Amino acid sequence: MVPHPKRKHSQGRRDRRRSQDTLKATNLVACSNCGELRLPHTVCPNCGHYKGVEVVARESKK
């Protein structure tokens, strides 16, 4: 015998269960210039490089 639910689950209960399906961890990659972790396909917020080329000029902190 196959078990069946006695009562229908509400839409809210169903949606709360399904909300966990889309949660994913963000993948981070190391910058080729400074090694700092950053999002892929974006300029590094630490050094301003993208694919080995300085795109954003960063001021040096002294």
Automatic annotation (TrEMBL):
The keyword Ribonucleoprotein applies. It holds the Pfam family Ribosomal_L32p. Keywords: Ribonucleoprotein, Ribosomal protein. GO terms for cellular component: large ribosomal subunit. Residues 1-21 are annotated as: Disordered. It comes from the Bacteria. One of its GO terms (biological process) is translation. GO terms for molecular function: structural constituent of ribosome. The keyword Ribosomal protein applies. Residues 1-17 have a biased composition (Basic residues). Signal peptide: none annotated. InterPro entries: Ribosomal_bL32 (IPR002677), Ribosomal_bL32_bact (IPR044957), Ribosomal_zn-bd (IPR011332). HAMAP family: Ribosomal_bL32 (MF_00340). Belongs to the bacterial ribosomal protein bL32 family. NCBIfam families: rpmF_bact. This is Large ribosomal subunit protein bL32. It comes from Anaerolinea thermophila (strain DSM 14523 / JCM 11388 / NBRC 100420 / UNI-1). The lineage of its organism: Bacteria, Bacillati, Chloroflexota, Anaerolineae, Anaerolineales.
